[in-house]
Specification:
Diaminopimelate Epimerase, Chain A, domain 1, alpha/beta, 40% helix, 340 residues
Amino acid sequence: MNAETTSTVKKLLATQKRIVVIGHKNPDGDAVGSCLGLANFLKQLGHDTHVVMPNDFPDFLKWLPGCDQLVIHEKDTSRSEALISEADVIFTLDFNSLDRTGDLQQILKESEADFVMIDHHQAPDDYAKATYSDITMSSTSQMVYHFMESLEGLNKVNKTIATQLYTGIMTDTGSFRFPSTTAMTHKVIAKLIEAGASNAQIHEAVYDTNSPERMKLLGTALNNLTILPDLHTAYITLTQQELDAHNFKKGDTEGFVNYALSIKGIYFAVIFIENKQENIVKMSFRSKGSFSVNDFARNHYDGGGHINAAGGRSSKSLTDTITEFISILPSYKNELTHVS
């Protein structure tokens, strides 16, 4: 975080404030971990701080300390909107466009609070008084650690904060295997372990608590795997009927797309998930090397994210979405053939 942004934030936090920390819709491990970690830090500075999430998040994250204090907008609309309306400062974490907050978007736009953005996605919007944006960072949780470092507050990183931030970094780096994992990431992780984060227990809590239904759903997903070898692409489909048959819960498909990407010779992987409730098809894109799924998602599916990990959506049927996807792919054949 540069000196100008640090100075702005210090001035905002110089006196006691009512603060709301907000994550994006369909929050993942990085959103939950970074928001909880930052909120605990701000509370230690003496601020009245609350975390608001647009909607619920996966069960495999609900063991995290502080989750019982989160305000979920879809479950407690009046309280979450009151907190936002009364806030002096609003921190937005792990997203850089207010439309990523779903039904909270309008009330955030109407807020007179000062906004602070902490995020690592590309092309940030210009809505915050202080913006800490760095697309080279592994995760927003790592950025929260550096944010605290800039404010000379690392002495406040206790076991609780260390656990929250470690979880966010671990999940957003695919257990430290994605290219965004740097030497600095490992240095931060070492400090978090020193502060009390139990790496083995955190990994087990997130990854080793699969339900039988989720494992059977994975089997169905892999059975639906399609490989397009000439285009170095693989994709997985899941219909609403298949999700319902396996008692689908939020977060159950987390990581499924990585199985497609793990195939030898595959540089581009996608999972298409039918969502009848929202009448859309949700997509997760993953890639290796120089092929930018962020650009692909932005160009075709009203999405975005990072070079090697992004999301998107389609309002067409699942069948039509896949047909369209296959028709688009040949125009990327040269990029997919010469991935560096």
